[in-house]
Fold these 2 entries.
Entry 1:
Amino acid sequence: MKILRTPDAQFENLFEYDFLPNFTTVTGADGTPLRMHYLDEGPRDGEPILCLHGQPSWSYLYRKMIPLLTAAGFRVLAPDLIGFGKSDKPGAMEDYTYSGHVAWLNDWLTQLDLTGLTLVCQDWGGLIGLRVAADQIGRFKRIVVGNTGLPGTAMLTDELSAFMGQMYASVPVPDAGMVREQFQAGGPGAFLYWVKYASESPDFSVRDVFKLLSGITDERVLDGYVAPFPNDAFIAGARKFPALVPLLPQHKDERLANDRAWAVLEAFKGRTLIAFSDGDPVTKGGDAIFKARIPGADCVTIKDAGHFLQEDAPQAFSNAIIAFIRKE
């Protein structure tokens, strides 16, 4: 496994990101040691909040929320998943698997030995984080899900998965504009365009992804999001993530693993908050699945926000989390 590490110079003077780095070493399935970066802010005796990002973001996504949460007395931890941010980046797409990401984060959490956690997860932060929560449920007191999912066999039957596999074969290799058109149209195959764009398009660009899925126009912010990726050699993890969503027939084992996670989450004795935004083209309607399977959950809609609700509505999302934690 070839490992890349983004030069520190890439992270100098980033807009609105002035946090001290922390590192630990996790071990990949093949025994490869990988350096994993995380933020650890706020009072050490404060209740811990674990904030997980998705694709293709990193802990920079939580830069606006961290000061709000720490000011309320909480300790906030925000790791960069392997392949993202200041964490090490395996250089080949085949180095990344869904279960591999779960194993890396499980290793990190075990080493930090955190308990009494409130999990805040969005996008792939949910697909990975909810699996980790299920694996180590005794460490978690609360779970906050926003703009994410956990596809299992109830959502994706073998028949539906086979149909999506046939659809995927017919999808052309799109550019970012075509992906945007598909999401705007709301067609059932829109996500397959996203998968094929990320994994196969020669024009894939992290900057274009943020333009596609957000309303960010400030180039300083976009520079912050693309800082971990100085050139295309560093983006294998970002390219691979959409293709790891367990939609297709070859992903059956991961759907079954998600079924096992759902069984733990449905029996969770702690509290859950479902906090989806009102303007996410990617996970629109996904909150209904969580509401149906966790009927006792608290629910809130984060208004005037898109896919990256941490970026679009940091105050509202933070306020919802703080109120949820304090509501005992």
Note: The beta strands are 3-4, 22-27, 33-41, 48-52, 75-79, 89-90, 117-122, 140-146, 271-277, 298-302.
Entry 2:
Amino acid sequence: MHRNGDAGTAGPVTRWLSTTQPEALFVLSAIAQYVGAVLAVLLFDGSIGGTDGVSPQTVAWFRAIGAAIALLALSRGWRSGWTREQLIGVAFFGVTTVLMNVFFYLAIERIDLGKSITIEFIGPITVAAVTTRSRRNAIALLFAVAGVVILGGVEIDDNLVGLVFILIASALWAGYIVIGSRVAQVDRGVAGLGLGLAIGALVTTPIGAPGSLEVWTSPSLLVLCLAVGVFSNAIGYGIDQFTMRRIPIRRFSVLLALLPVTGMVIGWIGLGQQPSAIDLVGISLVLIGVAVQERDEIERVEAVVRTDPA
């Protein structure tokens, strides 16, 4: 495959990302994403930043701006060399990602972080189900679904709006996986992600810009909003891009089961949302699903090695 831009230079970070176990990368990505989410929640209610709060859609918009700036600053060769088809794919990916973030933030303003993540996981589970190719993968998905259902619960009695927002985010998350895997195969480092987020931020300006004046006029608030993007998108999604190049889309979708687990831990530490005993049961089922699916991948690779002398 032709390489250009920063993808052709294998620095120590790139080499580490290319050789580290996908499970470890997922945990690292999830920690970064949900540290950003905790910052976002604190910005919504005014706990940090010295204001009465910033709207979720505005924080999501600054998240995209901050991530795009960080990624493009670290990328080389993103200004040229794109085909029309690649640019269209990057644009769709960026807009899908930013809209997913907008609806996710609108949801976590109303629903607990861990609960939102688990309900949103319906999207990735659907992708994994559609692309399942073995009985063991199906079993892995059943465990993951059971765990997510237990973790998510049914606490939606008086929160229909929040539920609608998180279900929309879930559908967009499925699109993020499918479109993102194609963008990752372009193999231009994180340039595609950075350019896509820049386009997504531009397209969603009518959503995020209203009410942003207070952020622009407060250096501390601006830094905090942009930091959300660095943690959640630049670091979190940047790691995802490397991982997507190394594993099949179905495995990526199942490994995303680690996100509710990590999100619940981060929510406990950062927001005081302590998991219950039933939550721990759900976590166990999710991890069993990941382990079963991982074993399927190992056996598949071993079979190829045994039958292919090359």
Note: The chain has one domain: 22-307.
